[in-house]
Design a protein that fits this description.
By secondary structure, the chain is mostly helical. It has a single domain, classed as Orthogonal Bundle (ABC transporter involved in vitamin B12 uptake, BtuC), CATH 1.10.3470. The chain is built from 13 helices and no strands. The longest helix has 36 residues. The two termini are 31 Å apart.
Length: 315
């Protein structure tokens, strides 16, 4: 007999997504009604400014949540998240270096972040054969190293560029250089790849020995997860800067709601991560309007108490 509960919960998550879309369209310095606004200025704000931004937030949040789910299975550590291996730190280094030597440019910072994340992935690959435990330790050390480099670069930045660098490092959805259709295609591609690996991920949860006995090439699977999760993180950081806690909190929450089967956890994470970042961005645009908070601050304020509550509930 088919268990319909996960499908009903997915339908409920889609309803929450629809509500988040409406909130994201309405929220901002000026609260607008998406259904009754006929003024041309309001139409411009809704469909040329807020609509692309909420789609960017959805894709970036979904990519971070998928990467978090993959890292947690790959490393066998429930506290693993997209930035734990230092990929985001190396991306931030690349962005700040470009900002230090070239004129202020969102495209330049994003290009630097993309190159920096590639270097971070290459550095992680050097330790991939050491096993999950040592890979995680190497990632923590690399993240600390990149943080030190960032601190040095920030100290050397001209005063006028310091605010721009800090704003980008705390998350910025206002000026993504990756076109929205491409971001959504990458989100869909990441989800399809995850669904293709979902059965192997379920078996890996049983332990390496059990997974190997069930026909899973564990070493090959870990390489696939490492590449996919690092690439998803690199795309998200390139598009929106460094935004924490989504890849840590959302996979935990989805596993509590949907169980451990990845054919439900992965699509739920891809949607749930997008919903969380959309709502966080709505808050960032509204709390101190007309000024705007970095969205990473909002995700931290949401993520920390939610994660502590999830840990207590799980215990």
């Amino acid at each position: 007999m088919i268990n319909r509960k996960p499908y009903l919960r997915l339908a409920g998550l889609l309803f929450i997504l629809l509500a988040a879309v409406l909130i994201s369209l309405a929220a901002g310095e000026r609260w607008l009604n998406p259904f009754s606004s006929v003024d041309s200025m309001n139409q411009t704000i809704l469909w040329e400014l807020r609509w692309p931004r909420l789609l960017t937030a959805f894709a970036v949040g979904g990519l971070l949540a998928l990467a978090g789910a993959w890292f947690q299975v790959m490393l066998g550590n429930a506290l693993a998240e997209p930035y734990v291996l230092g990929v985001a730190g190396s991306a931030a280094v690349g962005a700040v270096i470009v900002l230090a030597f070239f004129p202020d440019s969102g495209f330049g910072m994003s290009f630097g972040a993309f190159v920096g994340s590639g270097l971070g992935i290459a550095a992680v690959m050097l330790f991939a054969r050491l096993g999950p435990g040592k890979l995680l330790l190497a990632g923590v050390v690399l993240a600390a190293f990149w943080s030190a480099v960032i601190a040095l670069m920030l100290a050397l930045l001209p005063q006028g560029k310091l605010g721009l660098a800090l704003g980008w490092m705390l998350g910025d959805l206002s000026s993504s250089v990756i076109p929205v259709p491409l971001l959504l295609c990458l989100w869909a591609l990441a989800l399809v790849c995850g669904m293709f690996l979902s059965r192997s991920l379920d078996r890996l949860l049983l332990g390496e020995a059990h997974a190997a006995a069930l026909g899973v090439d564990v070493s090959h699977l870990r390489w696939q997860l490492l590449i996919a999760a690092s690439a998803a993180t690199a795309i998200a950081v390139t598009a929106a800067g460094t935004i924490g806690f989504i890849g840590l909190v959302i996979p935990h929450a989805m596993r509590l709601v949907f169980g451990s089967l990845h054919r439900f956890v992965l699509p739920a994470s891809a949607i749930g991560g997008g919903v969380l970042l959309m709502l966080a961005d709505s808050g960032a645009r509204s709390v101190i309007a007309p000024a705007e908070l970095p969205v990473g601050v909002i995700t931290a304020f949401i993520g920390v108490p939610v994660f502590l509550w999830l840990l207590r509930r799980k215990a």
